[in-house]
Write a structure and sequence with these properties.
Largest sheet: 6 strands, mixed
Mean pLDDT: 84
Oligomer: single chain
Bound molecules: iron/sulfur cluster
Strand order of the largest sheet: 3-2-1-4-6-5
CATH architecture: 3-Layer(aba) Sandwich
Distance between the termini: 48 Å
CATH topology: Rossmann fold
Strand content: 5-15%
CATH superfamily: HUPs
Radius of gyration: 22 Å
Low-confidence stretches: 284-294, 299-330
Number of strands: 8
CATH class: Alpha Beta
Structural class: alpha/beta
Number of helices: 11
Shape: globular
Length: 330
């Protein structure tokens, strides 16, 4: 195997997937100042790395500023990130706030500290975003984080709710984006090895692993190995929601359903043989041409960001759909 070739392919795939997510959800626009939250883990390092690559070739002009919150966890190597960021020559800010002591004081021994810790971190990062004049806050959550959240919400929260690629912060003041939304975690693990990021372990605070999230993550990884394409199709399913075929009365007016006397294109095929559209995945590596139509992924296309999403979507949709008859007609 030619390692350099494989690495180059991985880099192209990462840029394509991130570019497409940015395009699809208009995550970054001309003139944006994007605050990239860096934790020292593989995901946020990769996020910054890929955004810097796209910044050089994307049609929109935008600024990046990296931010790390030093929460004063015992043993946190405070010099690692500043040294790395200085080498990159990118504007950055290290915010030092001892949230570790607060969390330790407030949360009873043996209880998980993550929920309070994240709430404190969120508030601080929003404030820093204001101080830095950031118009967007970029987080390093990836495809597998989104799907884990979806399943956890179903299993334990009785809700069909994932993790949005773009949202308004809970204080209403910021737009938060997740440019890695289409990226499988396994690609980020490999990219961190290729780029040799100086990873800071995330176990410094001594908080227990979230066991349920870990179990769901293991299940997704197992599916990905045994049934290639399934996990990506789950992500695609989040983009192809049919409210009339779910059961939320707030989303669809079931009470108002009446026979119209006209055939319905999206009607229920109650008595027909079922056919399922098999949606090829973003990360499968095929249909490269169609996917490269996304303006952020390809410097050859230079429409405005706002104008490109529709055409890219059409091209990729046409190229990605194949139909497989699951059962012959009776
Ligand atoms: S693992 Fe530690 S640093 Fe991370 S959210 Fe939980 S308590 Fe905070």
């Amino acid at each position: 195997m030619d390692v350099a070739f494989e690495n180059r392919k991985l880099e192209k795939r990462l840029c394509r997937l991130v570019g497409q997510a940015i395009d699809d959800y208009r995550m970054i626009e001309d003139g944006d100042r994007v605050m990239v939250c860096l934790s020292g883990g593989k995901d946020s390092y990769s996020l910054l790395d890929i955004l810097m690559r796209l910044q050089r070739r994307a049609p929109a002009r935008f600024e990046l500023v990296a931010v790390n919150l030093d929460q004063k966890q015992p043993g946190f190597p405070a010099e690692v990130l500043p040294n790395y960021l200085r080498q990159l020559g990118i504007p950055f800010h290290i915010e030092t706030q001892d949230t570790y002591s607060i969390v330790k004081k407030v949360v009873p021994e043996g209880k998980t500290m993550c929920s309070l810790c994240s709430r404190l971190r969120r508030g601080i990062l929003y404030r820093v975003a204001c101080e830095l004049g950031a118009t967007k806050i970029a987080l390093g959550h990836h495809r597998d984080d989104i799907l884990q959240t979806l399943l956890l919400n179903m299993f334990f929260g009785a809700k069909l709710k994932g993790m949005p690629p773009k949202l308004v912060s809970d204080n209403g003041e910021h737009v938060v984006i997740r440019p890695l939304a289409y990226v499988p975690e396994k690609d980020l693990i490999r990219w961190a090895q290729v780029r040799q990021f100086p990873i800071i372990p995330c176990s410094l605070c001594g908080s227990q692993d979230n066991l349920q999230r870990k179990q769901v993550g293991d299940m997704l990884r197992e599916w990905d190995k045994r049934f290639p394409g399934r996990v990506n199709n789950m992500l695609k399913a989040l983009q192809n929601v049919v409210p009339s075929h779910l059961m939320d009365r707030g989303l669809f007016d079931f009470a108002g359903v009446r026979a119209t006397g006209r055939p319905e294109a999206d009607g229920d095929l109650a008595f027909d043989p079922q056919t399922l559209p098999l949606v090829a995945s973003f990360a499968d590596g095929d249909d490269e041409e169609a996917l490269d139509a996304a303006s952020w992924a390809s410097p050859a296309m230079t429409p405005t960001v706002a104008g490109a999403a529709g055409s890219a979507d059409n091209a990729s949709t046409q190229a990605q759909r194949r139909v497989i008859a699951l059962s012959p007609a009776p």
